[in-house]
Amino acid sequence: MVNNKKTGSQALVATLANCGVTHCFANPGTSEMHLIQALDKEPRIHSVLCLFEGVASAAADGFARISGVPAITLLHLGPGYGNALANIHNARRAYSPMINIVGDHATYHRDLDAPLTSDIETIVKANSSWIGVAETALEAGEVAAKSFEAATNAPNSPVTLILPADTAWTDGGVDGPNVIAKSPSLVTSQALDEVVGAIKAAQKPIILVGGAALYDEGALNNMARLAKAGVRVMIDTFPARQARGAGRFAPEKMQYFAEMAISSMAGVDLMILAGTSIPCAFFAYPNTPSILVPDGCVTLTLSERCEDTIEALQKLVDALGAVEMAAVVTAAQMPAPTGPLNPAKIAQSLSRHMPENTIICDDSVSNGFAMYFGTMGAKKHDWLALTGGAIGIGLSMAIGAQMAAPQRKTIALSGDGSAMYAIQALWTMAREKLPIVTIIFANHDYKVLNIEMMRTGAGDVGATAKSMLSLANPNLDFVALAKGHGVQAASVTTSEEFDEILESALASNEPWLIEAMI
Amino acid sequence: MVNNKKTGSQALVATLANCGVTHCFANPGTSEMHLIQALDKEPRIHSVLCLFEGVASAAADGFARISGVPAITLLHLGPGYGNALANIHNARRAYSPMINIVGDHATYHRDLDAPLTSDIETIVKANSSWIGVAETALEAGEVAAKSFEAATNAPNSPVTLILPADTAWTDGGVDGPNVIAKSPSLVTSQALDEVVGAIKAAQKPIILVGGAALYDEGALNNMARLAKAGVRVMIDTFPARQARGAGRFAPEKMQYFAEMAISSMAGVDLMILAGTSIPCAFFAYPNTPSILVPDGCVTLTLSERCEDTIEALQKLVDALGAVEMAAVVTAAQMPAPTGPLNPAKIAQSLSRHMPENTIICDDSVSNGFAMYFGTMGAKKHDWLALTGGAIGIGLSMAIGAQMAAPQRKTIALSGDGSAMYAIQALWTMAREKLPIVTIIFANHDYKVLNIEMMRTGAGDVGATAKSMLSLANPNLDFVALAKGHGVQAASVTTSEEFDEILESALASNEPWLIEAMI
Question: Which domains does chain A carry?
Fold first, then answer.
């Protein structure tokens, strides 16, 4: 029965709540006022205010990576989406479900070329697997259901729902159908047979795994079985989420630098792709290969990203009769670090103090390698990487991850340069009282760019170029920045101090920022 | 003669410097390393590092509004452009020339779908009047010249030049031609005659003026002549730049709220458009008109945005024989303000202390009206408005405006909410030692949204909705935020304090931030 007293925005919000949406990360404007009112009346959805749209999109990504459920973002016309775009790009690369709701002018106002008018459909296109416009209140509920369906269709992805203001405010809304996220499809027996045959015939086979298998305990065990059976197990360099730590099998990561990746795979004659695609270098460099497959190596797909890799690995293990598992990681027994602070010491402290099931949101760029390897033997935890290379996601992603798992501890690792893309995340942490610990690697440099400058062979680095890669002059003061956003903070220069502050920050019920002077 | 020892990026940079480009606002990444090296060797272009791309695009906009010359921005692939997009939108609405250089993957790397790969051409489309891809080093110089030509083609606009990394690093670059910005075309005598006839026949004519005429002394005098001759002179609500203050004619602004705009024009039977288009409401509201032309009023175009409105006004004045001028604004004699601080008192202090030729970058949103009217009788100054409605431009635009006119004083007016979109601008002010005075209107609210919530009729404001429009809990501490970025600051609550701090901040050679608690 049509409830004509429901506005378009009320039908939209009710439909998404019926589908299971629980969180909205918002930076609203005038065109979204009725949507805000509809959310006000919907107790099933928790609305979270962000000072900048890039915080909202990264938070929705973090939420999805931990919960598997899409959050909605609320963005103000084309420019609002623009501000969110970089982290939607990262979410697209993470295959995170996400429903970006973009408020637009009223339908009859769109053609008048008002100051905020822009071609929203074109702006969102590159980072939306689906775009829907709710042209009338009547269809708002149905479009909302379709947005949920599209976002959760394997492999998951960000989608965009454009909501004109008059659709939002007009009566005549009707709830759309309840949508249940579809399971990924199963791999064909033909693909499986081909892979089994190729592995048996290969001298040095590799399996490269991506997607949800990386945080499935059964799949990790099956990777350990494959490893024991002589198949080298590798994973994507920057996975959306990886379950790791003591007691779990540790697959090898595809190396970041092309020449190292290639030489580490010398002699490999078969690369099986499971839930991922042919690996390529992050950037091209003069005289360096772009495709990370050694000469003479054949690639073969076990499962596409839209297929069920967890089930495919089980079938592969069964077909190969691989029962025994390779060794899992043993718990590291780390002494308290001493002396001047550096990334290795920070990793040492983290290994000592991270509670079980910690979520690490890694945006530490050039320090990421040291952090990743240095925490290998820490208690079981999840590692969320920067999937799309658009730095600036760490603090904001932690907001969503923490809200998806309030009982777990979330740690954001961020370079100083990357933190400054969306430092406003700190305010939302304070407002929502999220006990996130943010660690800033304060080297006062775009350090990775100094490395890249050498690698790209751009020649001698003059004063101007040097200054364009440096964050010094003046140095940022992250303790003051945290205070300005309402977050407690400390700046530390020794390993002893860091170890002590980290322990107490992890025990706190409030957000904490540690500026690690390295 | 071809200098084959020049790389594509060197040819590009040399060509733009030859055309007259002097400033580059950059947030570079790996794909732009060779461009950074080329800039390092080009003494005619000053490179300015920004911590966030939205600072770079707003700075380029501010630079263009004051100098008339396009600056270049340096952005890192699709996500980098995304971060800059909101302020490029504002620049498009300001008709500011701007050359956005987006570094892309090497041509042979684009199809591999690396993490940072995205469909750049689609992302930039809505906010670029021209898009060029420098596919080879050989054509990089020519594409650069074309980008300059396109950006400075009346009415000016932002353009996008996509530079693949291998074009940037490969030898074989050739400088493109020197391009001289074209003058806008002249209005036809037919259009002029029609307007003259219509004005003579009208009972209550209005002329609505936009564009470069608003900061041309001769055009302002001609507007005063038209006013004296009985043509009511109005200007766009949010002009890119307006020259105003004591001794200048003060045209009337088209009002922001539609119903007020319409009722203020009751009985008007003719609206002449000069360098602008038919006015429309900023947002649509239920039961409120969208087009700001009263019933029965005819609209007629004197000059399009791409035409020479300054010259057209001169011809119109000549044709009407309008010699005498309406009165200009007399200098305000303001006493020192006393008592609790409010926007009117802030305007009073500004009127007292602003030196001649101050540049005001206005992003003060709901406080903008009080500031604009309260400074009408201040010394001559330029007012740069938020042209595209994407809040968050003020501090960053001031960077570019100040660099375009080092001998003038620049003041950024910003809401607390709007400042938080790109607060990172403060660091670039500190690094470049720009004596900008930033005034933050700290009402701890998205105050304009509270007004809009009422106006859109979204109904009673519940606790969640209220919290989504509030910047309280916790309050932002702008003095700490400024300190964190290396900028001196003070928080003031009384008019006396504000007046004193403003005077000393304006006398300083370094950036200053004043948190005005209103």
Answer: 8-169 (3.40.50.970), 189-320 (3.40.50.1220), 343-517 (3.40.50.970)
